[in-house]
């Protein structure tokens, strides 16, 4: 019993720390007001462009494409624009910059797990982005387009869970690519490759549903689909019933697997630093 | 933990392997012996200066002591722990400051970083509050406590770094060039603060610097390292007696004259109307020399050179 108490206190202290890190990261992200406003504008403009194209595609093929109506597709366009910053489609160079400049040694001096520290930082920032950059494009999109809304109130809850998982998957992808900086010295090349891959396979460029069948199958088997396509599947109701459970399980599975991969890479990177001196 | 030294290095070596490209596929393998058989111990409560010119191996030594670099050879204990193997545990008991890196949140005010450290180190809330209040008072942080760190001057930021490194009451604090680039006032603030922390809290302090002044004003004991080897390990008082008393008086005469002949000074260098006179502070004073010189020739300008660490090291090799 005593041991359980001690462990409980340790877990409590750890969670408090994670929340405190996330809160500061949230606050820090909120300082960039002008960038946020500009980002909302750009995301919304692109939302309008993509929605118009997709609505046109639906209309010219008789109102429905692959089971999606024009308003489903417009909703997809605005939802995915809103998810860009939340799941980090374009990534974030903070960690790779710290590695490149060597500032990462300061992080190693903290008696805190490096991956969890950065995950908390990411979640805090993502929470801000969800509010500031996620919701406005969808609301602004609803002015001119007839958007689809979830059929049940509980779908909103499931959708929020799915977005949190999507953001964690986004974190794991960028955490791994940032760690590559330890070996490559410069991460810009790999960052661009990852951004391109995410943009294509997550469903940013087009909904994966509109890909040729075989390519959709491939894309859905990759972790990137968990970042954009899967949460929107839940939102639109294209995943329903037991499919919802399967979708969440898939996202959670990728979280666990990629967090694990990140830990292996982190251990190996730390070993390299400790032996070779950076 | 109190009866054994805070830090023990026994014959510690670190060799970096550097690979450079030589042609399309071939690569040269170069070895750099950054630290080469260093042994010393720092007792709990001591304040030791680790002095050396650029590239001497100071930072490499500090990195090994703090557990982020594995020694190639030798035995190392810090607070009874093996630094690399027990890095996270060690991190709870030490404070680290790098003159050129920051552990503060760049876009947030100092106070935010301080309050986060309370959770990082799980310090007792009352103790944390007490420490924050005390450090704010001693380091005069009050007026810029709520300014984002990126807007602070280097001196202000360094005072913030010191606080951040000491809030969790570490037994040992290790500082790598904490005074580098600081103005005179900030340097003074940093020195006074470290002295107080050492004297009043009994915190063991090890700091590297290439500024002899830091060590002379702060430490009772100093080590000089060059090319990875310890050249000298003695009390600052003894050092001053043996080495620290030679100064150079630079005098510029109105006209070019022959090297002057004085009883207690020798001309080390002569360039046009300028002459460098080396003298021993324990034998004569600059004032006495100046009045002697003034009788000989008309003087245009005068200055006294403090010894540079590079000169000192050169002197140590000669003796
Ligand atoms: N990561 C590294 N890889 C290769 N050589 C290094 C590395 N770090 C330092 N060195 C070399 O080791 C020597 C000692 O460096 P350092 O410990 O940083 O000296 P100091 O801190 O006294 O200026 C220098 O010659 C430096 O170039
Ligand atoms: Mg150095």
At CATH level 3, the topology of the largest domain in chain B is Rossmann fold
Indicate how many domains the architecture of chain A comprises: 1
One letter per element, helices H and strands E, the order of chain B comes to EEEHEHEHHHEHEHEEHEEEHEH
Report the count of strand segments of chain B.
13
For the largest beta-sheet of chain B, the strand count, sense and barrel status come to: 6 strands, mixed
Overall mean pLDDT of chain A stands at: 93
Q: What is the element string of chain A, with H for helices and E for strands?
A: HHEEHHHHHHHHHH
Task: Give a written overview of the molecule.
Chain A has 278 residues and is mainly α. Helix content of chain A is 77%, strand content 1%. The termini of chain A are far apart. Chain B folds into two domains: 191 residues, P-loop containing nucleotide triphosphate hydrolases (Rossmann fold), CATH 3.40.50.300; 74 residues, Alpha-Beta Plaits, CATH 3.30.70. Helices cover 34% and strands 31% of the residues of chain B. In chain B, α5 packs parallel to α6. Chain B is globular, with a radius of gyration of 23 Å. Chain B starts with 6 loop residues before the first strand and ends with a helix. The model of chain B has no long low-confidence stretch (mean pLDDT 91). Classes of the chains: A mainly alpha (278), B alpha/beta (319). Chains A and B meet through α1, α5 and α12 of A and β1, α2 and α3 of B. The complex binds adenosine-5'-diphosphate and magnesium ion. The site of adenosine-5'-diphosphate (ADP) has 12 residues of chain B, from β1, β2 and α1.
Write the layout of secondary structure elements.
The complex is a heterodimer of chains A (278) and B (319).
Chain A: H1 2-29, H2 33-60, E1 64-65, E2 68-69, H3 70-87, H4 94-101, H5 104-108, H6 114-144, H7 153-179, H8 181-184, H9 188-201, H10 213-221, H11 229-236, H12 242-276
Antiparallel strand pairs in A: 1-2
Chain B: E1 7-21, E2 27-42, E3 47-51, H1 58-65, E4 73-78, H2 87-93, E5 94-98, H3 110-120, H4 125-139, H5 154-166, E6 172-176, H6 184-201, E7 204-209, H7 212-218, E8 221-226, E9 229-235, H8 236-242, E10 246-253, E11 265-271, E12 274-280, H9 286-296, E13 299-305, H10 309-318
Parallel strand pairs in B: 3-7, 3-8, 5-6, 6-7
Antiparallel strand pairs in B: 1-2, 1-4, 8-9, 10-12, 10-13, 11-12
The complex binds adenosine-5'-diphosphate and magnesium ion.
């Amino acid at each position: 019993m005593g041991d359980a108490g001690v462990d409980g206190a340790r877990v409590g202290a750890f969670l408090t720390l994670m929340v405190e890190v996330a809160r500061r990261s949230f606050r820090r992200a909120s300082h960039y007001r002008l960038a946020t406003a500009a980002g909302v504008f750009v995301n919304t403009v692109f939302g309008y462009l993509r929605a118009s194209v997709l609505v046109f595609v639906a209309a010219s093929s008789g109102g429905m494409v692959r089971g999606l109506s024009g308003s489903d597709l417009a909703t997809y366009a605005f939802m995915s624009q809103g998810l860009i910053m939340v799941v980090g489609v374009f990534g974030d160079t903070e960690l790779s910059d710290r590695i490149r400049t060597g500032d990462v040694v300061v992080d190693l001096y903290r008696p805190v797990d490096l991956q969890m520290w950065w995950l908390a930082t990411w979640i805090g920032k993502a929470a801000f982005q969800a509010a500031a950059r996620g919701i406005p494009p969808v609301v602004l999109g609803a002015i001119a387009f007839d958007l689809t809304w979830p059929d049940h109130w509980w779908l909103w809850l499931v959708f929020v869970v799915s977005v949190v998982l999507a953001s964690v998957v986004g974190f794991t992808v960028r955490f791994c690519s940032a760690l590559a900086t330890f070996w490559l010295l410069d991460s810009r090349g790999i960052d661009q490759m990852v951004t391109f891959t995410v943009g294509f396979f997550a469903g940013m460029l087009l909904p994966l549903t509109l890909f040729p069948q075989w390519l959709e199958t491939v894309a859905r088997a990759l972790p990137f689909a968990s970042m954009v396509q899967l949460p929107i599947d839940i939102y639109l109701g294209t995943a329903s019933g037991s499919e919802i459970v399967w979708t969440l399980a898939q996202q959670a599975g990728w979280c666990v697997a990629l967090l694990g991969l990140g830990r292996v890479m982190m251990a190996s990177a730390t070993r390299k630093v400790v032996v070779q001196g950076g | 933990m109190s009866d054994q030294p805070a830090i023990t290095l026994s014959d510690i070596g670190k060799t970096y392997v550097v690979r450079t490209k030589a042609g399309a596929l071939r690569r040269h393998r170069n070895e750099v012996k950054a630290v080469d058989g260093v042994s010393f111990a720092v007792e709990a409560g001591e304040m030791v200066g680790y002095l050396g010119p650029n590239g001497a191996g100071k930072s490499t030594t500090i990195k090994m002591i703090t557990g982020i670099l594995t020694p190639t050879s030798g035995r190392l204990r810090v607070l009874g722990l093996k630094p690399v193997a027990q890095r996270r545990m060690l991190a709870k008991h030490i404070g680290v400051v790098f003159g050129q890196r920051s552990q503060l949140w760049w876009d947030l005010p100092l106070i935010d970083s301080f309050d986060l450290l309370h959770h990082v180190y799980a310090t007792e809330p009352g103790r944390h509050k007490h420490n924050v209040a005390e450090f704010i008072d001693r380091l005069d942080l009050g007026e810029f406590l709520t300014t984002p760190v990126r807007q602070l001057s280097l001196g202000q930021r360094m005072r913030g770094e010191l606080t951040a490194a000491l809030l969790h009451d570490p037994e040992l604090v290790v500082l790598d060039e904490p005074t580098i680039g600081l103005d005179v006032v900030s340097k003074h603030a940093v020195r006074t603060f470290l002295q107080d922390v050492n004297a009043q809290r009994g915190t063991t302090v090890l700091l590297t610097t290439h500024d002899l002044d830091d060590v002379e004003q702060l430490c009772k004991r100093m080590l000089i390292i060059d090319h990875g080897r310890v050249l000298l390990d003695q009390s600052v008082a003894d050092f001053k007696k043996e080495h620290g008393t030679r100064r150079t008086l630079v005098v510029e005469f109105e006209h070019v004259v022959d090297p002057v002949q004085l009883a207690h000074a020798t001309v080390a260098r002569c360039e046009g109307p300028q002459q460098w006179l080396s003298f021993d502070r324990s034998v004569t004073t600059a004032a006495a020399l100046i009045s002697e010189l003034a009788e000989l020739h008309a003087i245009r300008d005068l200055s006294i050179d403090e010894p540079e660490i590079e000169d000192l090291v050169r002197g140590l090799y000669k003796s």
